[in-house]
């Protein structure tokens, strides 16, 4: 499955809810304010393990818009819109944690 | 017209919701009425003034540039929560170097941004006539 | 929808899409207001466009006046001079000719 999270983990618990229910093969794509969780900060530990497994993606345009390109946490994979589509195709059912 | 002390509390990042842009518009309008305006950036609001924002990839207006005009509007009290910065792995160096020209000091360029603790911010808020949260 | 030389404008005559702007459109807008654009007008229009490019807003009149004074001297950076060029307001009319939106806070 593909889980997209579009809220900041500092403001909402969407990322935590997603993490609470995610299985071993699913991946997470951070978009919009969700990309704040892709930056190195006090909440980085939430997704550190998943990122090490190569299962955390962030949408490039949203990362750049927030000026955090140089502050990404380790092992976050950046994708553009075409990459977003590929993820949807590859991982089947998508869940949006809005 | 009597002058009041207005503080705008900015709590959200720029592009996920419309709050940041709405706040900025209201701030500019209040300044046009020559009020004593100050801004506070707390929680994800600190991302509003992070240096190097580029919106080409999301097709939205890059209004981070507009914060550089605040000095022209005599808005030169921008308080940033130290705790909020730290939680997000950010420092003062990651913020845009926003400045104003001091009329009383031969138009010397001075920084508008001041990093304060939440305790200091609480005191500054208590001195305001109006606090608006966005 | 109304248009000027094919470019769409809103009910107050401001360009809907900034990218449509040309010098000819500015001249046509001025002509419709019975103004012949001179070099002095263009100085202000060019300044407004540069200001918008840099800050993404149309400046309030007070800010515009101060900025013009700094750039071109006090004899031009005063509201009497600017209103003599743009009788309907250097902010409102000037920004319209420059293809910018109405200044924030301008009623």
The secondary structure category of chain A is alpha/beta
- Beta strand % of chain A: 15-25%
According to DSSP, the number of beta strands of chain A is: 5
Strand adjacency order, main sheet of chain A: 4-3-2-1-5
Description:
The complex is a heterotrimer of chains A (98), B (134) and C (107). In chain A, strands 4-3-2-1-5 form a 5-stranded parallel beta sheet. The model of chain A has no long low-confidence stretch (mean pLDDT 96). Helix content of chain A is 34%, strand content 19%. Chain A has one domain: DsrEFH-like (Hypothetical Protein Ychn, Chain: A, 3-Layer(aba) Sandwich). By secondary structure, chain A is an alpha/beta fold. With 134 residues, chain B is α/β, with parallel strands linked by helices. Chain B has a single domain (5-133), classed as DsrEFH-like (Hypothetical Protein Ychn, Chain: A), CATH 3.40.1260. In chain B, the strands form 2 sheets. Chain B has a 5-stranded parallel beta sheet. Chain B has a two-stranded antiparallel sheet with strand order 4-5. In chain B, strand 1 (5-10), helix 1 (19-32) and strand 2 form a beta-alpha-beta unit. The longest helix of chain B is centred in the N-terminal third of the chain and has 14 residues, at 19-32. The mean pLDDT of chain B is 94. Chain C has a single domain (3-97), classed as Orthogonal Bundle (Arc Repressor Mutant, subunit A). Chain C has helices spanning 23-32, 39-55, 61-72, 79-85, 92-97, and strands spanning 3-4, 7-8. In chain C, 29% of the residues are buried. Chain C is mainly alpha-helical. Chain C is built from 5 helices and 2 strands, in the order E-E-H-H-H-H-H. In chain C, a hairpin with a 2-residue loop joins strand 1 (3-4) and strand 2. Chain A binds chain B through residues 6-8, 10-11, 32-33, 36, 39-44, 60-62, 64-71, 80, and chain B through 12-17, 43-44, 47, 50-58, 60, 62, 64, 86-90, 94.
């Amino acid at each position: 499955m593909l889980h997209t999270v579009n809220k900041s983990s500092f403001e909402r618990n969407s990322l935590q809810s997603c993490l609470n229910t995610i299985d071993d093969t699913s991946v997470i794509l951070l978009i919009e304010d969700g990309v704040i969780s892709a930056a190195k900060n006090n909440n980085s530990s939430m997704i550190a393990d998943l990122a090490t497994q190569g299962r955390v993606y962030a949408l490039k345009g949203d990362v750049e818009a927030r000026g955090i390109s140089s502050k990404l946490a380790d092992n976050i994979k950046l994708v553009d819109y075409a990459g977003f589509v590929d993820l949807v195709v590859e991982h089947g059912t998508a869940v949006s944690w809005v | 017209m009597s002058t009041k002390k207005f503080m705008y509390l900015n709590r959200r990042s720029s592009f996920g919701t419309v709050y940041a842009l709405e706040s900025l518009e209201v701030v500019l309008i209040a300044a046009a009425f020559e009020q004593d305006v100050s801004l506070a950036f707390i929680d994800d609001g600190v991302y509003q003034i992070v240096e190097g924002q580029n919106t080409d990839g999301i097709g939205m207006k890059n209004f981070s540039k507009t914060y550089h005009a605040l000095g022209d509007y005599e808005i030169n009290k921008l308080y940033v929560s130290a705790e909020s910065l730290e939680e997000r792995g950010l420092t003062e160096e990651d913020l845009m170097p926003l400045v104003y020209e001091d009329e009383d000091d031969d138009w010397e360029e001075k920084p508008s941004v001041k990093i304060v603790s939440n305790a200091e911010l609480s005191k500054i808020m208590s001195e305001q006539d109006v606090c608006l949260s966005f | 929808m109304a248009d000027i030389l094919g470019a769409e404008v809103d009910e107050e005559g401001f360009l809907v899409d900034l990218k449509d702007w040309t010098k000819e459109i500015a001249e046509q807008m001025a002509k419709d207001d019975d103004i012949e654009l001179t070099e002095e007008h263009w100085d202000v229009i060019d300044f407004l466009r540069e200001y918008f490019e840099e800050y993404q807003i149309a400046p309030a009149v007070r800010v515009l006046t101060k900025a013009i004074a700094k750039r071109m001297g006090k004899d031009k950076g005063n509201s009497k001079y600017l209103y003599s060029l743009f009788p309907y307001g250097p902010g409102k009319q000037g920004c319209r000719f420059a293809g910018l939106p109405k200044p924030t806070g301008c009623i």
